[in-house]
Specification:
Elements: E1 3-5, H1 11-16, E2 24-27, H2 37-49, E3 52-54
């Protein structure tokens, strides 16, 4: 299985191209929470075609107790 990070920079490639054919897409939820308008609609279209996996970032400088 091969996944690919979904990014706004090349979002149209996920819907319009035959080149990108990942088994799933992945996103960092903190980059998409609260998104609306055009990008929310595009994201929903991509989710109709590909399963979604989420990942988070860990920043050592922001350690929580």
């Amino acid at each position: 299985m091969v996944g690919l990070g979904y990014r706004k920079d090349f979002s149209s490639e996920f819907l319009e191209s035959n080149t990108l054919k990942p088994d799933f897409i992945e996103v960092a939820p903190e980059n998409w929470i609260g998104i609306g308008g055009y990008w929310k609609r595009e994201f929903k279209k991509v989710l109709e075609r590909y399963p979604l996996y989420c990942h988070g970032f860990r920043f050592p400088s922001l350690r929580m107790p």
